[in-house]
Amino acid sequence: MTPAPNDLRSFPALDDVDRAILTELAADGRLPNNALAERVGVAPSTCLARTRALRESGAIRGFHAEIDPAALGLPLQALVSVRLSAHERPVVDAFRARSVRFPGVVSVFHVAGAEDYVLHVRAASADALRDFVLDHLAVDPAVQHTQTSLIFEQARGVG
Question: Of 30, 66, 70, 133, which one's alpha carbon is 20 to 30 angstroms from that of 47?
């Protein structure tokens, strides 16, 4: 079985330089290699090799631009908690596979507690958010219950 993406046992041991590279890239994924090397105190060639190794190991999952959702015409954000009707692995795996492809879904979190999943969703309006829940979740036989919480403000942490 393939380890989950956040399963730390699947990664080689990271030293202080690797952790520094990850910290710097988490703060600014567009940091040029020369500047990154200077910040973490290694030669640019060493930094490049280590960054490649971190990408290949999956420690760096990718790079992306953080865009204001309103610029995309999706100013409304919500967290939609989902409780599944069954908890067998095929049901859970199938829901996860479907949910990441739903329109407007930014992230899918499999969580512990009363709910099974939390979906971070962006929508054009309250009506569009309602339609998302009705068209994709309420009709899904695997979904027992949903609860929607609007996001008033979002701030990104550094770690």
Answer: 66
